[in-house]
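Sequence in, structure out. First:
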Amino acid sequence: MKCYLCKLEGKDTDAVASCIVCGMGVCMNHVVREEVDQWEGGYPFPATKLKKTIPRMLCMPCYNALQEGKK
């Protein structure tokens, strides 16, 4: 798989991860490793926040969109 964002810039770079949100292949320059809270829930509630976070790989556009949503 190739990095989609590099391809848009006219480069041919191998991807090292797929974005967990959109599935885009991204290289080391375009990937963001984010520690995300993990929630465990029963039906219908309550949900509990687990003690450990889980690493997630995001592309830059999805990372930026998620950061905008936190404001």
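Second:
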Amino acid sequence: MHEMSLCEGIRGIVEDQARAHGFATVRVLRLEIGRFAGVEKPALEFAFDVVMRGSPAEGARLEMIDLPGRAMCYDCAVEVEIDNRLDPCPRCGGGKLMPVAGDEMRIKDMEVV
């Protein structure tokens, strides 16, 4: 369950930003999560509630924004959106694809008080 360690990293960022910008409470935290990030959303929600206790984000609403998986097709030389890493190119059917996006997870923004 690496979602717990992901949330510990998020907590560190929230606390650093609270010190740097002088806010006390996070009301909403928006995360962008790529399709290939390997994040279990229910586990992330659970871990978020547990790990944020005692932090500025305690009780904050967690919003998760899905980002598509994208790959470069070497057969047709076009960047395409794919659902799974091993999918063929939806444009030409080729099988030589290199993922270029979808592994990321990042804080998009926070609503703070």
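Remark: The chain has a mean pLDDT of 96.
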